[in-house]
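Q: What does the assembly look like in three dimensions?
Context provided by user:
Components: two
Sequences:
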Amino acid sequence: MPFRFLDDIATADVAFEAWGKTREELFAAGADALLSTMVHDPEAVERREETVVTVEDTALDLLLFSFLQELVFLKDARRRLLHPEKVRIAEEGGRFRLESVLRGEKIDRQRHPLVVDVKAATLHRLRVACESGIWRAVVVLDV
Amino acid sequence: MSLPPQLRKVAPTVWELPVSYKDGMLVPARIIATEGLLAGMEAGVFEQTANVACLPGILKYAYCMPDGHWGYGFPIGGVAAMDPACGVISPGGIGFDINCGMRLVLTTLTEEEVRPRLHQLVDLMFARIPAGVGCTGFVHCSRSEFRQVLEKGSHWCREKGYAWPEDLDMTEEGGCFGGADPDAVSDKAIERGFDQIGTLGSGNHYCEIQVARPENIFDAATARAFGITIPNQVVIMFHCGSRGFGHQVATDYLQSFLRVMTAKYGIKLPDRELACAPFRSPEGQAYFAAMKCAVNMGFANRQVILHRLREVFSQVFHRSPEELGMRMVYDVAHNTAKLERHLVDGTMREVLVHRKGATRAFGPGMAGIPDCYRETGQPVIIGGSMETGSYLLAGEAGAAATFFTTAHGSGRTMSRHQAKKMVTGQKLLGEMEQRGIYVRTDSWGGLAEEAGFAYKDIDLVTAATEEAGLSRRVVKLVPMGNIKG
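A: Here is the predicted structure of the complete assembly.
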């Protein structure tokens, strides 16, 4: 798993570090970490239906914030738990645009070992950077 | 953990960081704690309280309550009052779960009467009060009807038959913040929350059956005034907020404030999570009106859950909720910003009080609390972990220093991830059952995260609020049964 939970930030909430060789891999790892926060065994969520998520922002870290926020919205508004399948990030005129395809299914309390509801991604200590050729992010989720 | 060297003790329970502690601080930061509680606070608490002291228009001090712990933006337990004329409003000073709060409900039942039916009662509560990730409520409410909920809060519940008239009197602000404007909230927020009325959510949200044992009563006269009159009386306490609706309102405005804070208003802060806008600006006023919608959703949510609880108890005990004496003691909000009148530098004036994970605690004789509590002070409900117990307290005159604010819970000391490494949900459930506490949850991991050892000692936190003169202990309430998401 290209992410790990961090114990030493924001005690009451959930912080994670994610990484990837590309920005796209990093964002997919972030979506995986979000799913793992809510479901103990993410593989219990079957890849039944496709959902497309598109977000735009002026900076990469805010783009990750908007992307995770959209997945949190879909969890409540559509009851969807989603695995990232494809992520594409384009940069044009100082704006970043993310297009992603995710697959998942409706929340099923019988089959999905649920852990905790995520209320929101936060901006506290939010960080996206490329270090020695590896893209890394730190995110604090409010739970 | 080592404390910041600049931290100075200014009173037995008051610790101050001067404005020289960090660039940009406009007022000193004050942590209310005993020496023992202070030693257990993470470095993040001091940094975040100091960051709050940088917000434009802040008055007197940035405060952190004795249950304070590291959050995002404000610390959990953070309190700041702003000058409404020149100060800011910050969603990070309220939190994503706007009007997360506590409600305490009486019964005339005793532990001896409830114990034989505890499993039946908790199982039925678990079946009838939706909890957990992405849960939806039993109230079928259209999107346009939901706008009524946002404007009216608990008044909507009374119109629909989900409230007794006196419930509203026993709710902070009568269960409705005036001036809520549904046009200030996004379609996404409505989409996210319109079918979640009457749901608990997850994390540290729960509904608990508790008992007031005679040996746990600290102040018998006030306990009687609050309705605790029978030995081993059973009460119900629950904790939840405005659900996905409030979370989305906070998210929307955090993003919108981030765009204007520096670019339009020239405000620079040490943490983006503190994103803010001048209170009197169009953006500030729009957020205030939207936040009030979420506050009202929070009140309505807890009111509908109370309705459900009355049905459950009535079904199990074959008596009406009125016969079972299921009256509210009070309902307090944790995460809000509110215009209130407080004494600042010798003058009574209007200020905008941000409370994040902190409870309003009006003292005896103050306007704004029910007449029946005028002599005792406002009931304050502080929830502990599901293992250790919770407290009912009363507001004190000494809380004037903190804009009449006290603690809200016991405060975490261990991360959720660490707690899960220490115990499994199944093991904890078994241990609690042996101690007479019956728990239902659909999240084993979530249960382990809420283990008692992950929290500060609630006895120490409430004693600290008493020592600081913010609130006095009335009765400790011990858990019997609990449902959590």
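Follow-up: DSSP finds two helices and eight strands in chain A.
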